[in-house]
Write a structure and sequence with these properties.
Elements (H helix, E strand, L loop, with lengths): L18 H7 L2 H4 L3 H18 L4 H20 L1 H7 L6 H12 L1 H4 L8 H41 L2 E6 L2 E7 H25 L3 E2 L15 H7 L4 E2 L3 H6 L2 H27 L7 E3 L17 H24 L9 H27 L2 E3 L1 H7 L7 H10 L4 H14 L7 H11 L10 H6 L9 H20 L3
Parallel strand pairs: 3-4
Antiparallel strand pairs: 1-2, 5-6
The structure holds arginine.
């Protein structure tokens, strides 16, 4: 039993609350992760109270000392035990109760001028900022890992029969695929950076329940202390706005969806039928029954994490749909979805990065397969176009050669037939996939020099993204 009441209200109620409904209404398990952010928010509220003259310095010092103590207890795990032992509605009530236990007299003043509505909104923004920075870090780490892999694959000139519809399309360098994978994570990092930036904007603290406060709270000081640019401009909006939190969840879901796509390809490449890639022992898993099995589970789980992130995002967006302005208890569910979805998505991104470290590519298998499926057919058609044959006719000439070929590749025999059919006896086609990639001339193509340039550009873009002032 705690020394002070677990609930922050009760004066007007004649009967005690139904424990089942208090348990149903509690968000403690969902918002315990917010504890360190609430402490910062509470400290800033004390600053606003002190600087506005709502409380005297000794009371402010007692409150700050109690909040410091709670911060230590959060670090040691003692606070979590305290919170779980009570019947609190949320982490905010638990911290308030602990402060009132630690500083019985001053503790009474902590909530003056504050509602959980502005407290929840502010605390959630601090969390969003923190996790958006984590999202940026892990996205850029993954992007860099792909760039390192791309550099090695470029040096080795490893080829890949790139596919559309999973059908062989054109030869590219493996480095080009790795660079493409990296690009998605650079975008993910940029999106997280934007969310972090938006979460710095307006501080809801001092908005009270919805109307602002008649106590002289120094809102600017509180906003400054928490690193916000300015206090929010409309209390009614500030307590009910969850847009930035939803943006974080969207950024997280999108990043995991980004991870699910190379995951899918790696899973397929790791099958014996492809044999392009291998997952090291530390990341692969076995079967309890089939002794030979070697499964790429981390990538499958990332693929599935994208599904749950998407579901959680949809649920969170739906939870605010049609809500009147200001605070409604539904927003507690929004918060749980944002936090749960973000934590899971960040864990999936971390696991994706860890699993990537154990991937190796089979240069010989990939390179040997690069010409299979007539992948230089487009080069043959381009060669005809360069010789003045209209594009549609060039396409048909090459298609007819492919249809008549008994082979899997467009090789010397096919070239001879094409020469005979078109009367261009000296027609040149880059039959070797390495020559095909070298023949690409456009910027952003799979030409090795374009790839080298793109790797360097991507590295400096990531440097700038990481250096940006948060
Ligand atoms: N547990 C609630 C939440 O996390 C706290 C806000 C309660 N506010 C209220 N007016 N009942 O959203």
């Amino acid at each position: 039993m705690h020394v002070v009441s677990d609930l922050q209200w009760g004066g007007r109620f004649a009967q005690p609350p139904d424990p089942q409904l208090i348990a149903f209404g509690s968000s403690l398990e969902d918002d315990l992760v917010l504890a360190p952010f609430d402490v910062r928010c509470s400290r800033a509220h004390v600053t606003a109270q002190l600087e506005g003259g709502v409380i005297e310095r000794p009371a402010a010092e007692a409150l700050q000392a109690a909040l410091d103590f709670v911060a230590d207890e959060i670090g040691s795990g003692a606070f979590e035990r305290f919170a779980r032992a009570g019947a609190f509605e949320d982490v905010h009530g638990a911290i308030d109760a602990r402060v009132r236990e630690l500083a019985p007299e001053a503790g009474e003043a902590l909530h003056a001028g504050r509602s959980r509505n502005d407290q929840v909104a502010t605390t959630l923004l601090l969390y969003v900022r923190d996790r958006a920075e984590s999202g940026l870090r892990v996205s850029s780490k993954i992007a860099r890992r792909f760039l390192d892999l791309a550099q090695t694959a470029l040096d080795d000139r490893t080829l890949l029969a790139a596919t559309t519809h999973w059908q062989p399309a054109q030869p590219v360098l493996l480095a080009f695929w790795l660079l493409a994978a990296s690009a998605g994570f650079e975008r993910a990092g940029r999106r997280f950076a934007g969310v972090a930036e938006d979460a710095l904007r307006f501080a809801p603290l001092g908005s009270g329940a919805l109307a602002g406060s008649s106590l002289p709270l120094e809102r600017d000081a509180a906003a400054r202390e928490l690193g916000f640019r300015e206090p929010s401009r409309n209390a009614l909006d500030a307590v009910g706005d969850r847009d930035v939190a939803l943006d974080l969840l969207h950024a997280a879901a999108r990043a995991v969806i980004t991870a699910s796509r190379p995951s899918e390809e790696l899973i397929v490449w790791m099958t014996p039928a492809f044999g392009y890639a291998k997952l090291g022992d530390a990341a692969a898993t076995g079967s309890s029954l089939m002794p030979q099995k070697r499964n790429p589970d981390p990538f499958e789980l990332v693929r599935a994490a994208a599904a749950s992130a998407l579901g959680t995002l949809t649920g969170a967006l739906a939870s605010v749909k049609g809500l009147g302005l200001s605070y409604h208890r539904d927003l507690q569910e929004t918060k749980a979805l944002v936090i749960g979805g973000t934590e899971r998505a960040l864990a999936a991104l971390g696991a994706f990065d860890a699993a990537l470290a154990h991937v190796t590519f089979d240069h010989d298998a990939m390179t040997a397969a690069a010409a299979r499926g007539f992948t230089v057919a487009t080069d043959a058609a381009d060669a005809l176009i360069a010789r003045g044959i209209p594009a549609r006719s060039a396409h048909r000439f090459v298609g007819e050669v492919v249809a008549a070929s008994g082979s899997q590749t467009f090789g010397q025999n096919e070239l001879e037939v094409l020469r005979a059919n078109t009367g261009l006896s000296d027609l040149k086609v880059p039959l070797d996939p390495l020559d095909s990639v070298a023949a690409k001339r456009t910027s952003g193509s799979t030409n090795p020099s374009q790839i080298a340039k793109a790797i360097a550009t991507a590295r400096s873009e990531l440097d700038a993204l990481e250096r940006r002032k948060g």
